[in-house]
Specification:
The complex is a heterodimer. By secondary structure, chain A is of the alpha/beta class. Chain A has 11 helices and 11 strands. Helix content of chain B is 72%, strand content 2%. Classes of the chains: A alpha/beta, B mainly alpha.
Chain lengths: 248, 347
């Protein structure tokens, strides 16, 4: 068994008096793609925000063996290689593609790791489109290019665990396929990935392990291949191979 | 008014305008990154000028014990935070940087023959005991409420302003002060006689503005500040902490403010409460730039300087009224034309 890189136990998040996440236990092993699927409003984005330290949460989160809740700030987590690509991308719209990428390496730069030119070449090799547009303002990119830039910027931080929130959202099927191909490529490069998706079939096809989140709790968890054939998952999230076959 | 007077007024206006431009840039920077409307900006002008006057006359920098006291306060607050986060390894650095370093600086400065030092060294000593107040004020007054609304931050800024004016009276006394010009005399340029200090002011202001532009365009820290202003969440996710960005831009604005004070003190008498009006005029310039555009803010500030200079000739009693009335048509124009800018996103 590969070592565990992140683990939550009894994780709960409240918005005021409403509990958005209830008693969630998930585990991500080194070099794996783990996916969290579930309907809109199930708490997927809330879960990622809590793991990143953006929201107050209860329970326990262990990242690389350290308890993080209340103990590690967002920038401390980024410095330790935990990087989130948020659903809204959160790019620096009026700055160039190259500057967006450079700032992805900010945490490394502060630690004295000044080797970002090499990392930027690696990112351009993964996303040639970004190299073509390196001088263009991020705000003028197309939806797919923005997702690529958001992922490229995150890779500049040399993540150990990359968390992707709905990378396929609002993108054309061909681009979704391309993005997921890159996710698999990142895994082969040794990056562990937590992939949150509404596009359940596409996510389960690339993932090693999957959790189904419903109303803030884990309803089902299993090997991704098993989930693809689990009648409960098929009925609720995969349909009969019709409307969700985007990446098939 | 003949041409000679017009030229003299223009010179005066541009000189003051250059100072207002520096202050307006600092105000835009602080607002863009931290959303604080930084009323105490002007106090740094007075503190800088009066500290320089004291050092130049051979006295110790009056605010040195304030820097030490606030430094110890910051060390305590940061130590508590570090212990709570379980990062005890940071403690020695936190205590050294914030508490020990200022005390060492005081010990060193007490040994120096201040009156006989070179002018440049006197400037550096004056700055060394004023500029740290910027990040200290940020850490103690603004960082704990950094996520609050713009209105709350403004109220805190007003409070800091009153405290700093009061302490200014305590540290520097009620008398005003002037310092000798960087270079005595002047030069006749065509029809106008120009004091060397005027050239120093405009030249250094231009250099500082160019330096700030280079910093924001080319250094990773400058880019990080811009990124924080553009998208706070995005910056946070890249490990650019809001605390670091805030501290950095409060340091820059304190440096710009204090240095502006040292620049104008040879041509204007500065009192402990002069800073407020000077800062407000920089603020009018910043408003002309909509609190977001650096070039417009600088241009607006020069316009404020010229308007002030000419109105002091035609209607000196109403000089301030005329300058501050300028803000009304500007605000009217902006509220009619400004479109709300969202974080540019794809859905």
């Amino acid at each position: 068994m590969k070592p565990v890189i992140m683990e939550t136990s009894g994780l709960c998040v409240n918005y005021g008096r409403v509990e958005a996440i209830h008693n969630v236990n998930i585990r991500i092993r080194e070099g794996e793609i783990v996916t969290v699927i579930g309907p809109n409003g199930a708490g997927k984005t809330t879960l990622l925000s809590a793991l990143m330290g953006l929201l107050p949460a209860r329970g326990e989160v262990k990242y690389q063996g350290h308890s993080t809740l209340g103990a590690m700030s967002v920038d401390a987590l980024v410095a330790k290689g935990l990087v989130l690509v948020p659903e809204k991308r959160e790019l620096f719209g009026s700055m160039s593609v190259a500057d967006n990428l450079l700032l992805g390496a900010f945490a490394r730069h502060r630690r004295g790791d000044r080797d970002h030119a090499k990392t930027m070449d690696e990112v351009y090799a993964i996303f040639p489109r970004l190299a073509e547009r390196h001088k263009q303002e991020a705000g003028t990119l197309s939806g797919g290019e923005r997702q690529m830039l958001a992922m490229g910027r995150a890779l500049m931080a040399k993540p150990t665990l990359l968390m992707l929130d709905e990378p396929s959202l609002g993108l054309a099927p061909l681009i979704v396929k391309e993005i997921l191909r890159i996710v698999v490529q990142l895994k082969s490069m040794g990056v562990s990935i937590l992939l949150v998706e509404q596009n359940a079939r596409a996510a389960l096809q690339v993932a090693d392990y999957g959790y189904v989140l419903e109303n803030g709790s884990v309803a089902v968890e299993n090997e991704a291949k098993a989930l693809l054939h689990d009648p409960r998952v098929i009925e609720s999230y995969l349909g009969l191979g019709g409307s969700h076959s985007i990446a098939a | 008014m003949d041409a000679a007077v017009a030229l003299l007024l223009a010179q005066d206006g541009i000189t003051n305008g250059a100072i207002y431009a520096l202050l307006s840039l600092a105000l835009v920077l602080v607002f863009a990154v931290t959303r604080v409307i930084y009323i105490p900006q002007g106090e740094f002008v007075a503190y800088g000028a009066l500290s320089m006057a004291a050092v130049n006359a051979g006295f110790l920098p009056p605010t040195m014990w304030l820097v030490v006291t606030l430094g110890i306060a910051v060390a305590i607050v940061d130590s508590v935070a570090a212990i709570r986060e379980g990062a005890k390894a940071r403690l020695p650095m936190v205590i050294f940087k914030n508490a020990v370093l200022p005390i060492l600086a005081v010990i060193v400065v007490r040994q120096l023959p201040l009156k006989d030092l070179a002018y440049v060294l006197q400037v550096l000593i004056a700055l060394a005991f004023v500029v740290p107040l910027g990040p200290q004020v940020y850490r103690l007054a603004f960082q704990p409420v950094a996520e609050a609304s713009v209105l709350l931050l403004l109220i805190v800024a007003v409070a800091v302003h009153f405290v700093m004016v009061g302490m200014g009276l305590y540290f520097f006394g009620a008398e005003g002060a002037r310092i000798p010009p960087f270079t005595d005399g002047g030069v006749t340029l065509g029809p106008a006689y120009v004091q060397y200090q005027t050239i120093w002011i405009v030249g250094i202001a231009a250099l500082l503005i160019a330096g700030l532009a280079l910093f924001f365009e080319h250094s990773i820290y400058g880019k990080a500040l811009r990124a924080t202003a553009i998208n706070r969440t995005g910056a946070r996710l890249m490990g650019i902490s809001a605390d670091l960005a805030g501290k950095l831009c409060f340091t820059l604005s304190a440096l710009v403010g204090a240095f502006s004070g040292i620049l104008i003190a040879p041509i204007t008498t500065i009192y402990y409460d002069t800073g407020f009006l000077v800062g407000l005029k920089g603020f009018v310039g910043a408003i002309i730039g909509g609190l977001v555009s650096y070039p417009l803010a600088a241009a607006g500030a020069v316009l404020v300087g010229l308007l002030e200079s000419y109105s002091s000739f035609y209607a000196s009693a109403y000089k301030e009224v005329i300058v501050f009335t300028l803000i009304i048509p500007v605000l009217l124009y902006q509220s009619l034309t400004t479109k709300h800018i969202d974080d540019e996103e794809d859905h």
